């Protein structure tokens, strides 16, 4: 709320003024009754009372509007900061979280904040001085009746003390359950075809219903406690009213007070009643708001990367325009990058078996280095560590001889083109997807990359060409098309280091041969690391790193490894060839 303090203060001041005017109204009413009693002219008092009512209403409405506007502004700021933070989060933090739950924190929790951040705080600020003012004025009118009133209102204090923490807990659980529902929904929608193909709709629906029921149960619990405190508020005001009527009537009869004072006192009590209700509501709303704010704050506390340096398009514009000059601050050497792993040890989580144990290799600038090995050997992990998605527990990963931990992340990644194993494509148009990593690339360069990635025919076939939407996760495209888009996206970045993770596994023979030539061409100009599952790829590689159970087993050329390494021979005989493996020799 800090940046919007001016709005909060304005809204609160207007509300306060409106409420103070409401406080004066009973005094004017008392005077009116006195004037009527004395048979004097009352037109002026009636006019004054009407003006007070009107002005009070206008001020209250203006205050309300300013506060609503401030609520929107507070939530807008929260959502901006939260979304910016989400994209800066470190990869392990997001891998540990549930995407659906994170989404609900940005959408649902901030909506709860919208309703509970500014208004209740402002109401409380307005309520308290009005309550104190009313109590003082009531005391001035009749101390005995004030004692009676406060005694009856004590019930509210007890009820709120008991219910507030319970409302908070239940509201927190309700928001957690909404988050769990988001996570469960994301789970099924993210693998919709798999769920359908498995015929698991009924089970998955039951799972979603369970989370919805959890949210309902927690919501009902909060509502129950809110009803208890609300009822306690209403009952205590009613009791106070009846007691004041009874005791006040007796005091009027005995001459201890007069009718006009009793009328004024009752009017104060009337004006107090909605404030008491409001305060009780405020306590409940603040509890729900507190629970939502906690969930938002948890995202704020998740580990994030620092943001520095120029924006993406500037990094790439500079990089693309002057490949021979220092491309941008920090890129120590232009041209192809060198990579080295120096006794790298790494486990994805403490307690898990290490994915890398003492991994060491060096890759010179230019040329193609292939990583081969059985599934789970740690090949993809090499790429994750170079991109600094994860950091080694021991040893060093060096790019251009500089520890990747010393590179600003944006600058490090601007030097790299990465084609992931499952070639993700984002919702949006084909053009959005191609330019994702190089917004400034266009024109002839785009045409050239489309040709090299064999995408020209696809673009010609699509109804709106490059501007055709590709669907959620690119599901209007074939697997091979997605792979070629991912390769084109990486090439458009004119990377100093190209990382390809089994990027050709879904391609047909013709496209695979063409892209092999594209990758070989890239390797003549830049450094290419490829996780290879095809013989054609490893045969073309300048060097091959054989990995097994997180270790580097051997390094060499295809011919060298065929004679020197038994595992490589076995891989060459089985995994790399599409033909079934021959009998063991
Ligand atoms: N994000 C992750 N969190 C936890 N463990 C992981 C994660 N990613 C990979 N692993 C584990 O780390 C080990 C190495 O995984 P990696 O993906 O590097 O293997 P790979 O050689 O690329 O395998 P494949 O050829 O099947 O893709 C595996 O045991 C895998 O289960």
From TrEMBL:
<dbReference type="InterPro" id="IPR039421">
    <property type="entry name" value="Type_1_exporter"/>
</dbReference>
<dbReference type="InterPro" id="IPR036640">
    <property type="entry name" value="ABC1_TM_sf"/>
</dbReference>
<feature type="transmembrane region" description="Helical">
    <location>
        <begin position="117"/>
        <end position="137"/>
    </location>
</feature>
<keyword id="KW-0997">Cell inner membrane</keyword>
<feature type="transmembrane region" description="Helical">
    <location>
        <begin position="45"/>
        <end position="67"/>
    </location>
</feature>
<dbReference type="Pfam" id="PF00664">
    <property type="entry name" value="ABC_membrane"/>
</dbReference>
<dbReference type="GO" id="GO:0005524">
    <property type="term" value="F:ATP binding"/>
</dbReference>
<dbReference type="InterPro" id="IPR003593">
    <property type="entry name" value="AAA+_ATPase"/>
</dbReference>
<keyword id="KW-0472">Membrane</keyword>
<dbReference type="Pfam" id="PF00005">
    <property type="entry name" value="ABC_tran"/>
</dbReference>
<dbReference type="InterPro" id="IPR027417">
    <property type="entry name" value="P-loop_NTPase"/>
</dbReference>
<dbReference type="GO" id="GO:0005886">
    <property type="term" value="C:plasma membrane"/>
</dbReference>
<feature type="transmembrane region" description="Helical">
    <location>
        <begin position="143"/>
        <end position="164"/>
    </location>
</feature>
<keyword id="KW-1003">Cell membrane</keyword>
<keyword id="KW-0067">ATP-binding</keyword>
<keyword id="KW-0813">Transport</keyword>
<keyword id="KW-1133">Transmembrane helix</keyword>
<dbReference type="GO" id="GO:0015421">
    <property type="term" value="F:ABC-type oligopeptide transporter activity"/>
</dbReference>
<comment type="similarity">
    <text>Belongs to the ABC transporter superfamily. Siderophore-Fe(3+) uptake transporter (SIUT) (TC 3.A.1.21) family.</text>
</comment>
<dbReference type="InterPro" id="IPR017871">
    <property type="entry name" value="ABC_transporter-like_CS"/>
</dbReference>
<feature type="domain" description="ABC transporter">
    <location>
        <begin position="339"/>
        <end position="574"/>
    </location>
</feature>
<dbReference type="GO" id="GO:0016887">
    <property type="term" value="F:ATP hydrolysis activity"/>
</dbReference>
<feature type="domain" description="ABC transmembrane type-1">
    <location>
        <begin position="9"/>
        <end position="288"/>
    </location>
</feature>
<keyword id="KW-0547">Nucleotide-binding</keyword>
<keyword id="KW-0812">Transmembrane</keyword>
<dbReference type="InterPro" id="IPR003439">
    <property type="entry name" value="ABC_transporter-like_ATP-bd"/>
</dbReference>
<protein>
    <submittedName>
        <fullName>ABC transporter ATP-binding protein</fullName>
    </submittedName>
</protein>
<dbReference type="InterPro" id="IPR011527">
    <property type="entry name" value="ABC1_TM_dom"/>
</dbReference>
